[in-house]
Design goal:
alpha/beta; Rossmann fold; Four Helix Bundle (Hemerythrin (Met), subunit A); 14 strands; globular
Length: 409
């Protein structure tokens, strides 16, 4: 599966700072120290609907991670999946009387268009669950043969007891996990499971649903968590730098995935940091496909909203914060974009070297994009009020905003 075209990232003088970021597993800030190639895995979409602003906010956060690393003169190895076979996709296809493959391809194509418009840097590998199945099957067989998984009526479940580190990603107790498991795709009430929290690794073929050859597992399809584990291990290996996604993925998805990988490898941890973006609400409720309270990036674009303004709206909130989309959020972003473009359109302006360093410091401090925006606001206001004599300053600001914030002025 192919990703989307990369926008050029301007080179800046000097060098960025190492990233300090909030790690869900430890509950505090840690300083990441990747090698020459920083490795990041971000969980992708289940393509049964278009990209909404909750998606966009999440991918914007991890786009900033990449940009901070690139500014430190590192390379970035970014991997993202597409869950192009799952119950919600099949249910939506049945509801709309459309082939599930056609639905997945249509929505994935629209996602690519949205990511391109928003100037999100693409992953090096963009892997669908279906194309990953040949690599998933051997992992499930290994877990089963090692006693870390078991069969139940043809399905194969992972035993959470097989990983002594289970629970260290989310830090939740068993009762909270059980509630979230029921809400987020698990089946804690199924009779016969060794532990209510045990997640499915391989679902035996169901009548009327697609299935694949699972070798000794029989016909079926993979569970959600093992999909990402297989892709991440294949392309990044154990101990990569950042596992990313929305905060609703901390449990069960990232918790279970970490345990799968740790049981397979005997190594700990699966990722050096687990980084989670906050949720975006509309009319007082979290934006979600199940509730239908969505604002789509593609709809905003069709309505003529500049993608740079959409990105500025996302950047105006700290990535870990839960926040609400309103018309005022968009209007503020449009006004900010107009001010910034007016400021950099002049032939000269106030010196900008200190501003670049201020943006770098803000982003290195747990991706504090609102602080970076405020710094650019101050420079733009100074340009408006009194101008300056530095002929290169507007160009420096324009390149820095593009390189570090992904906003083209």
């Amino acid at each position: 599966m192919y990703a989307w075209p990369a926008s050029e990232v301007p080179a800046l003088p000097g060098q960025g700072r190492d990233l300090r970021i909030h790690d869900t597993a430890t509950g505090g800030l840690i300083t990441l120290d990747p090698g020459p190639v920083a490795r990041i895995y971000v969980c992708g979409i289940t393509p049964y609907d278009a990209t909404h602003l909750g998606h966009a906010a999440t991918y914007n956060a991890f786009d900033l991670v990449q940009r901070v690393w690139l500014d430190t003169k590192r390379q970035v190895h970014y991997v993202q999946n597409v869950t192009d076979i799952d119950d919600p996709l099949l249910e939506r296809a049945a509801r709309d009387d459309i082939d599930w493959v056609a639905l997945a391809e249509k929505e994935t194509a629209l996602f690519r268009e949205d990511m391109t418009a928003l100037r999100m840097l693409p992953p090096k590998q963009y892997i669908g669950a279906v194309e990953a199945i040949p690599g998933i099957v051997p992992l499930v067989e290994r877990l089963r043969d090692a006693g870390a998984a078991y069969e139940l009526e043809g399905d194969v479940y992972f035993s959470v007891e097989a990983d002594p580190h289970f629970g260290k990603v989310s830090g939740l107790d068993a009762a909270a996990m059980r509630l979230l498991s029921a809400e987020r795709g698990g089946d804690p009430e199924r009779p016969g499971k060794k532990n209510p929290l045990d997640p499915m690794l391989w679902m035996a073929a169901r009548e009327g649903e697609p299935s694949w050859d699972g070798g000794s597992l029989g016909q079926g399809r993979p569970g959600w968590h093992i999909e990402c584990v297989a892709i991440a291990l294949d392309h990044l290996g154990m101990g990569f730098d950042v596992q990313g996604g929305g905060s609703d993925l901390a449990f069960p998805h990232h918790e279970m995935g970490a345990s799968h990988a740790q049981a397979l490898s005997g190594e700990f941890p699966f990722a050096q940091a687990y980084v989670h973006a906050g949720m975006v609400a509309l009319d007082g409720e979290k934006m979600s496909k199940s509730k239908g309270n969505l604002v789509f990036v593609s709809k905003l674009r069709r309505d003529g909203v500049d993608p740079a303004a959409i990105r500025l709206a996302l950047l105006s909130h700290h990535y870990r914060a839960d926040w609400e989309w309103t018309d005022q959020v968009l209007q503020d972003a449009l006004a900010r974009l107009e001010r910034w473009r007016a400021a950099v359109s002049r032939p000269d302006g106030p010196a900008a070297d200190a501003l670049v360093e201020e943006i770098r410091e803000a982003l290195a401090n747990d991706l504090d994009a609102p602080a970076a925006l405020t710094a650019v606001d101050r420079w733009a206001a100074l340009q408006q009020e009194q101008g300056g004599s530095d002929e290169g300053a507007p160009g420096v600001v324009s390149r820095a905003v593009d390189a570090l914030l992904g906003v083209a002025l």
